[in-house]
Design brief:
By secondary structure, the protein is an alpha+beta fold. It has two domains: 126 residues, 3-Layer(aba) Sandwich (NADH Oxidase); 108 residues, NADH Oxidase. The protein contains six helices and ten strands; from the N terminus they run ααββαβββαβαββαββ. Helix 3 crosses helix 6 and helix 5 runs antiparallel to helix 6. The protein is globular and about 50 Å long.
């Protein structure tokens, strides 16, 4: 089950661009992160995923005290799975006053771990409570109607999910609501400062993050669902990612 307590952290979390160097994570906090990772719910439970926490200086990352390095099997939809799983950690750490930033272009010398390939890293650092977001509506996000077509009673869900983080704030998700179905797509062509060949990689991780936000918001609003992931990407401008069949109370 998805923990509905994470829902409240949607409005607190933010992507930390600057960390307070005077604050340090304790060994107990680092152990707690390791334990929490074991409880993360996968999107696809047949994909092996592992992670390591290292000092930031062991990577090219310029933010935080530590970096969490994520490794995965390269199976179908493995990038979606990484985003879905580790956004749970992002929200959990916000509840513990630990700042997080998905750090897409970071590199590490250890590119393999237990026969798994390095995917992405997350910068971590202790923060003061006042350093987290106070008014989520001031985030720079697209208008709801630009990312969501046909709310049909899901206006609150549509408003909340757009605050999911994304690489370079590209917000590549689009949702079409038809009767009791939600069709989730990824925009194939987005404007970004990222190298063009890297955009699909990072935006697919972003879509996994978005799916977690979406499911969290649906469950919070007492909507159950059946999720179907799309198996193959097409060449269209809108790439199907997932289909949700909703059950309304």
């Amino acid at each position: 089950m998805i923990d509905p307590a994470y829902y409240q952290m949607i409005f607190k979390r933010k992507s930390f661009r600057k960390f307070n160097d005077t604050l340090k994570l304790s060994q107990d906090e680092l152990r707690d992160i390791d334990e929490k990772v074991k409880d993360l719910i996968p999107l696809i439970d047949t994909i092996d995923v592992k992670c390591r926490i290292v000092q930031r200086e062991e990577t090219t990352c310029k933010r935080g005290e530590y970096c969490l390095l994520i490794y995965s099997e390269e199976k179908e939809n493995f990038l979606l799975n990484v985003g879905y799983m580790f956004e749970q950690l992002d929200l959990y750490l916000a509840s513990k006053d630990i700042g997080v930033c998905w750090y897409g272009m970071g590199k590490t010398q250890v590119t393999g771990y237990d026969n798994l390939k390095f995917v992405i890293m997350i910068a971590l650092g202790k923060a003061y409570p006042h350093e987290f977001r106070k008014d989520y509506t001031k985030c720079r996000r697209k208008e709801t109607q630009e990312i969501w077509n046909g709310a049909l009673g899901l206006e609150r869900v549509a408003e909340v999910v757009k605050y999911a983080p994304s690489a370079c704030n590209t917000q590549s998700w689009r949702v079409v609501c038809e009767k009791n179905q939600l069709k989730v797509y990824r925009i194939a062509k987005v404007k970004s400062i990222m190298p063009k060949d890297k955009v699909p990689f990072y935006n697919t991780i972003d879509m996994g993050i978005f799916l977690y936000f979406l499911e969290l918001a649906l469950l919070y609003n007492r909507l159950s669902f059946q999720r179907l992931l799309c198996q193959k990407e097409g060449e269209a401008e809108l790439i199907p990612v997932a289909l949700y069949n909703l059950k309304r109370a």
